[in-house]
Amino acid sequence: MNEFDETAVVQAVRAGDLDAFESLMAQYAGRLRALIALKAPVAHLIDEIAHEAFVYAYRHIEAFTPGTSFFAWLAAIAHQLLRAQVQRYSRDLAHQLDYREEAVLAVCRERLSEKRVRELDHLEACLGRVPAKLRAVLDMKYKMSFSAEEIASATRRTIAWVRTTLCRVRKELRTCIEARLAAERG
Questions:
Q1: CA pair distance 67, 8, nearest whole angstrom
Q2: What is the DSSP letter of 128?
Q3: Torsion over CA of 105, 106, 107 and 108, rounded to 10 degrees?
Q4: Share of the chain above pLDDT 70, in %
Q5: Distance between CA atoms of 82 and 91, rounded to whole angstroms?
Q6: Does domain 128-185 correspond to CATH entry 3.40.630.40?
Q7: Domain locations in the chain?
Q8: Which of 40, 91, 104, 151 could potentially form a cystine with 45 if both were Cys, beta carbons 3.0 to 4.6 Å apart?
Q9: pTM here?
Q10: Dihedrals φ, ψ of 73, to 5°?
C-alpha cells in the first residue's frame, strides 16, 4: 500500500487483522503523541495516554463510524483519557495535601501540648515562689472566680490595688516561666 487507505485499514482491523491496526498505529502515533504533549501537564503521561488511546480504539473499533476521520476519533479518545487522568491526579493531590495538613496539625498539636505541659510545670514552680498573701489573691481570682470587687472586699483593699497587683503578679509569673523555658533550651 503506497497511499494510506484509512477506510480499508479500519475494515481489516474490524475483520481481526492485527497487522492492519499496527499500520494505523504507525500512521498516527507521532501525531497523537504530539497532540497529547501539547495538553499533558507532565511528560510521562504522553506515552501512557497514547498507549491507552490505541488500546481503547482497538477494543472499541466497532464504535468507530466509517467515513469519518480515524485520527479525530483517536484524538477524542486521548483527550477524554487525559482529562480523566488529570482529574484523578488533582483528586489525589488534594487528598495528599489534606493528609499533609492533618499530619502537620497533629505534630503542631503534639508539640503545643508538650510546650503547654512544660509551661504548666514551670507555672507551678513559679507559683511556689509567690508570697502567701499574693497567692491567696490569685486563688480567689482563678480558683474561686471572684471578681476584682469581691477580692477587694475580702482583702480590704481597693479595686485598683487588686487589678494592679494581679497584673504585676501575672507579669512576674510570665517572666519566671519564660526564664525557666529559656534555661531549659540551654
A1: 10
A2: T
A3: 50
A4: 98
A5: 14
A6: no
A7: 6-84, 128-185
A8: 40
A9: 0.52
A10: -65, -45
pLDDT per position as a tens digit, 122-145: 988 999 999 999 999 999 999 899
From CA 137, how far away is CA 76, in angstroms rounded?
Answer: 79
How much of the chain, in percent, has pLDDT values that exceed 90? 66
Q: How many CB atoms lie within 10 A of CB 11?
A: 14
Rg over alpha carbons for the chain, rounded to the nearest Å, is: 38
At which residue does the C-alpha cell 497514547 appear? 50
The domain 6-84: what is its CATH number? 1.10.1740.10
User: pLDDT tens digits, residue range 38-93?
Assistant: 998 888 889 999 999 999 999 999 999 988 999 999 999 999 999 999 888 888 87
**Assigned C-alpha cell, 4:** 494510506
More confident residue, 176 or 98: 176
Q: Please give the grid coordinates belonging to residue 124.
A: 507551678
Distance, in Å, from the CA atom of 156 to the CA atom of 175, rounded to the nearest integer, reads 28
- How far is the CA of 40 from the CAs of 25, 50, 161, in angstroms? 20, 11, 72
Q: How far is CA 121 from the centre of its chain?
A: 35
Q: Residue 141's closest CA among 128, 130, 153, 151?
A: 151
The string of DSSP letters for 57-82 reads HHHTGGGS-TTS-HHHHHHHHHHHHH
